[in-house]
Design goal:
alpha/beta
C-alpha cells in the first residue's frame, strides 16, 4: 500500500512547520504534534553532482538478497521525493536550512528526485 504525504507546499498550507534536525542521519525524521504547532523535523540534505549515483548505489546495495536491513535509504529517498515536487518545495527546504545544493537550479533538484 502506498501512502501519500503531500509535498512541502501542501504541508505548509495545512500549518505543518518545518525544522532542520541537528544531524544528517536519514533516520532522524520526526513528526511531532503539539498544542500550538505540528512540526516535521528533517535531517539536512546536501545535493551535488554525485548525489544521484550515490543514492542509486546505496539503493542497489539495500536490494542485495544477502543484506538484511530496514530499507532506510530507499524509504528516505522515496519520502524526500514525495516532499519535493517543484522548485518552491526546494526553496522552502533551503530557507529552513534543511537542504543545500550545488546544482545550477532548484529545478535540477526536483529532477534528481524524480529520476530516482
Amino acid at each position: 500500500m502506498t501512502y501519500r504525504y503531500g509535498n512541502i507546499q501542501d504541508l505548509k498550507a495545512i500549518g505543518i512547520l518545518l525544522k532542520s534536525s541537528a544531524t544528517r542521519r536519514p533516520a532522524d525524521i520526526d513528526f511531532s504534534e503539539g498544542w500550538f504547532a505540528t512540526r516535521l523535523i528533517l535531517p539536512e540534505i546536501v545535493v551535488d553532482e554525485t548525489t544521484t549515483s550515490t543514492f542509486l548505489n546505496l539503493i542497489a546495495y539495500e536490494m542485495c538478497p544477502d543484506f538484511e536491513n530496514d530499507y532506510g535509504v530507499c524509504s528516505f529517498v522515496a519520502f524526500t521525493g514525495q516532499l519535493i515536487e517543484n522548485p518552491k518545495d526546494v526553496r522552502e527546504l533551503r530557507s529552513k536550512g534543511i537542504l543545500q545544493h550545488w546544482l545550477c537550479s532548484d529545478e535540477e533538484v526536483v529532477n534528481l528526485f524524480n529520476l530516482i
